[in-house]
Amino acid sequence: IALLLWPITSAAQQQDVPAALLIADDLFITAERELVATGNVEAFQGGTRIQAREIRYNQSTGALTIIGPISLHDGETMTVLADAAELSPDLQSGLLTGARIVMDQKLQLAAVQLERVDARYSQLYKTAVTSCHVCDDGRPPLWQIRAKRVIHDREERQLYFDQAQFRIRDVPVFYIPRLRLPDPTLERATGFLIPEYYTSSELGAGIKVPYFIKLGDHRDLTLRPYLSPQTRTLEFRYRQAFINGDMIFEGALSDDDLKPGELRGYLFALGAFNLPRDFRLAFDLELTSDDSYLDNYDYSDKDRLDSNLTIGRVRKDELIEGT
Asked: Are strands 2-4 and 211-214 parallel, antiparallel or unpaired?
């Protein structure tokens, strides 16, 4: 049965928002004027779609009671799964219990309780956040961030953590009272990126925690501290785009147990620029502190480093190049 949900439509029209549409196998109205939809229930309102086992609308209070399992699709990038919910008629505000948010198929936020406010803010309590696969047998993911409270600002596309704790295999590593991270839908914003777990026979097991710094619309810097029992390393990457070209610098500095007392590192740089009269300038710089550094850290398997500066032009029946 598909019909316009008239009680919700009236409330929606008063608030100047699109009407809601309800689809269900069975629909009836109780003696208490409560509208009940059961069996393969779907509700649509604007860009929000809810699938549930049962939806009840109380005309006197204007509240929607939804019995799960619930699947709420809010746009193309966010899906909310929950056990039960109490929502406003426009589906934009309310409380969900046993909730889990999946953002852009990349990040999962599981919480005991989720509060939606005007479709912009989602406030989660007792939350676990991870981008790793979550096992059905209860085993903890490779890494996760536990927090007392997490606020997702959908307009700014930011995640705010309150009393955050970073864990590896459910083992606490460090505590951060306040933490802000961009959500996966935001391509460029200053903040921490997804931590990386790295292990090797020479350096042991360690973790890399990247921090991205937006220096402008056309340049950025990424710092990636790498910590393990055998090394203290800072990796970096600088990128900048120009009207006529771009360049990138990558490198690292290490104090490790493989060569105690020595500061080791490397620097790779690439760039290319368009010049007048169809000429093109390109450079490639490769430097390292010692012969084994790149191999020890798995940065490159090259056995010979070459640096060059080239300027040239290619036209029909013409090749000019100088190195």
From this structure: unpaired
